[in-house]
Amino acid sequence: METAAALKSGTTLENLQAAFNGESNAGAKYLAFAVKADEEGYGPVASLFRAAARAEAIHAANHAEVIRKLGGTPEAVIETAAVNTTAENLKDAIAGETYERDVMYPVFLAQARAEKSAAVKTFHYALKAEAEHARLYTEALADLENRRGAGITYYVCAVCGYTSATAEEDRCPICATPKEKYETVS
Question: Is 151 helix (H, G, I), strand (E, B) or coil?
Answer without folding.
Answer: coil
